[in-house]
Automatic annotation (TrEMBL):
HAMAP family: HisC_aminotrans_2. InterPro entries: Aminotransferase_I/II_large, HisP_aminotrans, HistidinolP_aminotransfase, PyrdxlP-dep_Trfase, PyrdxlP-dep_Trfase_major, PyrdxlP-dep_Trfase_small. This is Histidinol-phosphate aminotransferase. Its cofactor is pyridoxal 5'-phosphate. The modification N6-(pyridoxal phosphate)lysine is found at residue 223. It comes from the Bacteria. It catalyses: L-histidinol phosphate + 2-oxoglutarate = 3-(imidazol-4-yl)-2-oxopropyl phosphate + L-glutamate. Pfam families: Aminotran_1_2. The keyword Transferase applies. Its EC number is 2.6.1.9. Keywords: Amino-acid biosynthesis, Aminotransferase, Histidine biosynthesis, Pyridoxal phosphate, Transferase.
Amino acid sequence: NPLTHVVSIPPYPPGRPTDAVAREFGLDPASIVKLASNESPHGVAPGVIAALAEVDAASNIYPDFDCYDLRHAIAADVGMAPDQVLPGAGSSEIILLAARAYLDGTRKAIIPQYGFQSYEGAVRSVGATPVFVPVKDWVPDIDAMLAAVDDDVHLVYLASPNNPTGTVLPRAEIERFAQALPPHVLLVLDEAYREFLAPEDRPDIARLFQMRRNLIVMRTFSKIHGLAGLRVGYGLGDGELLQVLRRLQLPFSVSAQAQAAAIASLSDSTFLERNRVENESERARVAAALEKAGVRILPSGGNFLLLEVGDGPAISRELMRRGVIIRPVANYGLPTWIRATIGLPRENDVFLGALDEVLRAAG
Ligand code: PMP
């Protein structure tokens, strides 16, 4: 069957939209708390609204496929050259481009256990074989991953903080891996949640690029920037390598609106820092409340927590009936856990209250 590798792709399970849940359960959409997709509760930077108003009139024109202004803005922000930046339609597009460039039906890619689900989809979409390497104490096991490398392995996806676990791989471990991974393997370091880490805990990517050329560092505007709806992220890496990936890109995949909004958002460091600090304090508050209630949680470096609740899918349904949308993670082989995004204090209180009620009812 020529479709075998396609039907082996796990379907992407998006968080249910607020309106759909409101209709199904007869709830007021305004009362629903959605903590299912690690979206930002802080909206967008004020400058984004003005930037979007300016591009609106240009919707009859294709966007700049070269993303000239955005690449220059990102380059200045990260301290690299503009040709070392490749914007995409979310970092999701970069995940896919890496697989399309480096893999085929004869090749394999390493994915740590509990790695973000799109990695497997990308690998299988080109007929390649994923090699899942068990984690050690909930974080990727660097030595086990190195041991899994052979001549057929051409790609490794590694996220820190990781989704859905939230766990952080220490900087020194990432560096050890970048150094030891054979040069023929592309390392995709997924930093979708980087900005939620304290600055001193963030990987030093200049050091990583000194250690290996075959590296793409991936970031997104969907999380701390609050631009998930516009679909924009980027890869950082060697200019020639990115040119190869670019050949595989869907033309004009990053809209003019997304480009303008991303540029405006990058310039508002006050907004970003405030979001980080608020996430950190709310995450600590929610974690403490859960621990006090006897709920096991994993340490998280992201804008979400993974918590053990018993029957994850059943608890998720009960929460949804009460207007709280979180993410069951049974599809990751974690049927007793759920993932909850950190929202505004009021939203987190609604979540904690509903969870308390549901867990009591479940006994
Ligand atoms: N990587 C990780 C680890 C993620 O959690 C997500 C979003 N859930 C993505 C990549 C993709 O995000 P986007 O395409 O919106 O940039």
